[in-house]
Amino acid sequence: MNPNLRALLLAFVVLATSIPSVAKSIRPEPETSTDVLLNHAFEEIAGQRFTAALGDIEALLRIRPNFRLAHLIKGDLLLAKARPLATLGDAPNAPVDRVVDLREEAVARLRAHRQRPAEGQIPRYLLQLLPEQKYAIVVDTGRSRLYLFQNEGGTPRFVEDYYISSGKRGAVKLREGDEKTPIGVYHVTSSLPRKKLSDFYGNGAFPINYPNEWDRRQGRNGSGIWLHGTPSNTYSRPPRASNGCVVLSNPDLDALTKFLQIGLTPVIISEDVEWLSTEDWNAERKTFLNAIEKWRGDWESRDTDRYLEHYARNFASKDENLAAWSRHKRQVNSSKSWIKVGVSNVSLFRSPGKEDMMVVTFDQDYRSNNLSNVMKKRQYWLNEGGRWRIIYEGAA
Amino acid sequence: MRPALRLAALILGLSLSALTHAQSDDIQNINRLVKQGQHAQALDRVNQYLATKPRDAQGRFLKGLILAEQNKVADAIDVFSKLTQDYPELPEPYNNLAVLYAGQGQYEKARQSLEMSIRTHPSYATAYENLGDVYTKLASQSYDKALQLDSSNTAAKTKLSLVRELISGASRQPRLSARGEPVKPGEATRPTVVAAAPTANGTGKPAVETKAAAEIKPAAAKAPEVQSEKAGTPEDAIKTVHAWAAAWAKKDVDAYLAFYASDFKTPKGEPRGAWEKGRRQRILAPKHIEVSVDAVKVKTIDGSSATVSFRQRYRSDTIKADSGKTLVMVRVSGKWLIQQERVGN
């Protein structure tokens, strides 16, 4: 083999072979998807079929003319015909940071393509969707990937996944301007069409509700975390590029837009998505639904101690800590001869991140001898040494 | 006979003499005008020439060159483009077409033409050099897009070499190693201007050609990996030519064929086996053969490759032919072997 091509091969093989394929994936990607074509080109390179690889890259560039990573690989494949290459992205006088960005994008895309979640696997976070929540989104910042699920009678069914960019400085947003992506359970709050935005946001934007109740309680601040598109001068951005937003290519954003329901579609952002078998997922779900049912029953029993057992030591509502909350509940319950609590339309999400936490939202229908009240309620439950307790409760 | 075949015969030049002499005299005169910078006059003359021989490859090639010199790029492209259609077996028109495309910044088209040129003649060094430049340029365009660089201000415009002649002359330096691989493409990035040289039947002035070629292509730029155990000397090369002629005259076909390198560029680009078979028949057919060589000159040499030209006198019971001949030789395992054989010096 031509020594130049041998060098190129080495540069790529490190990439290509360090990412093993997982045999059986959820569902095949369309043959013309960006990552399928990209992966194919890498396989051609690994198989020393350089002309075919160049053909693949050129085909990819015909559908994605602003795909910088493909241009970089094309440059390498061409330059290798003229002189030896030292590395992937061996452009003379190339700014190192930009080449590194593109290499990381290549790794992220190949890894996501080759290690797609297996058939029947469900992210741990999507324990129960509302019937009207037709779709749910799970973002994996570590893998630079967004997974879209469809709600099929309560079971999340994988639909599609997309490459994404996230915060320049990684995840777990704490402060305004820290250039990190928040980790937690959110939902899409509004839609900003392209014409209301600068080109930077591409074909549109979907703000999410960061900071949520838990974030605020943790003193996290900052705002304006969106899912959005890409400026017109590039097909995609590097894996770590945004100020905390989740960025998709414009074609991917357009595809996703069709599925998003404002105020409804959950967006769970994790640094490293955990996947469960359907069996385990069902078990987790039941355990937790039981915990809620127990809380509901204990509230109806008017045994305030049993009821308060469900609340964590560090519990706080919007304006009361556990002591104030307990006082208040004892006082209220003393005037009741009966209580009926209806809980319906329960959505249930396990929160990613350090704390072992659940976010539950439901319609609460409270009736008693002297007061009735219907509200939408949200609770955050924390696992304290094996026992689930409420750490926050309030109107949703 | 189709023009393409006549051209092939012209290259071989063994049997056809008078007819081709008349043609090449015209061509040479026009060539001289071009060299003197009298492009308008040269164009008139070549048009006159083509009026009588509209399909003549040499004339059309020259016309393309003149148009290129006059910066009539679109017209020149037209001429070379039609030449590639009529004579798809000739690498030079593809090469020149590529050079003109590259001059317009159409590197993708240039690449395709050069790849055609090389497909036609896998050992065509000038096309390899040009292709190296075009690949580099295309790569740099891709890198610019990948990395958002603007190298248009700093990068020198790629200057490729037009081939000045159709077939023969020093334009085909042996830029292939003995194994038939291109020389390190890293060394092929310097554009090579191939000097004007005499035409195919070898009546030109070799001294001019040698000098020009030597100026443009320093010896260091030539296939260093062909270095054998022992660098060849001019004396060795001349001895080899005499031995080759002797084997031919003795009708010792095996010995004769052993003088040809494994990557010998067969005259029509035919497979080695077919060429050998043809030679065997032609050498064995006559009852007797006389081959003599004189005025043997080593024109370029760098220890691993050499260009040797001489007068060749061929007599057999059927054919008499005198011609100039040039052998491009490469050093393989301490021996000089013939990589290209051309009529004309």
Could you describe the 3D structure shown?
The complex is a heterodimer of chains A (396) and B (345). By secondary structure, chain A is an alpha+beta fold. Chain A has 3 domains: 3-114, no CATH class; 122-275, L,D-transpeptidase catalytic domain-like; 278-395, Roll (Nuclear Transport Factor 2, Chain: A). Chain A has 10 helices and 18 strands. Chain A has helices at 3-17, 34-46, 50-63, 68-79, 96-114, 213-217, 250-257, 278-300, 304-308, 322-334; strands spanning 122-123, 126-128, 135-140, 145-152, 155-163, 166-167, 184-187, 192-193, 204-207, 226-228, 240-242, 246-247, 266-270, 275-276, 339-351, 357-368, 372-384, 387-395. In chain A, a hairpin with a 5-residue loop joins strand 15 (339-351) and strand 16. Chain A is elongated and about 90 Å long. The N and C termini of chain A lie far apart (65 Å). Chain B has 345 residues and is an alpha+beta fold. Chain B has 2 domains: 3-202, Alpha Horseshoe (Serine Threonine Protein Phosphatase 5, Tetratricopeptide repeat), CATH 1.25.40.10; 227-343, Nuclear Transport Factor 2, Chain: A (Roll), CATH 3.10.450.50. Chain B is 48% helix and 14% strand. Chain B contains 12 helices and 4 strands, in the order ααααααααααααββββ. Chain B has helices spanning 3-12, 18-35, 39-52, 57-69, 73-86, 91-103, 107-120, 125-147, 206-216, 234-249, 253-257, 272-284; strands at residues 289-301, 305-316, 320-332, 335-343. A 4-stranded antiparallel beta sheet of chain B has the order 1-2-3-4, with helices on both faces. In chain B, a hairpin with a 3-residue loop joins strand 1 and strand 2 (305-316). In chain B, helix 3 (39-52) runs antiparallel to helix 4, helix 5 (73-86) runs antiparallel to helix 6 (91-103) and helix 7 runs antiparallel to helix 8 (125-147). Chain B is globular, with a radius of gyration of 20 Å. Chain B starts with a helix and ends with a strand. Residues 1-21, 153-157 and 168-229 of chain B have low confidence and may be disordered. Chain A binds chain B through residues 2-4, 66, 68-72, 74-76, 78-79, 81-84, 89, 91-95, 98-99, 102, 233, and chain B through 131-133, 135-136, 138-143, 145-149, 151, 181-182, 184-186, 188-189.
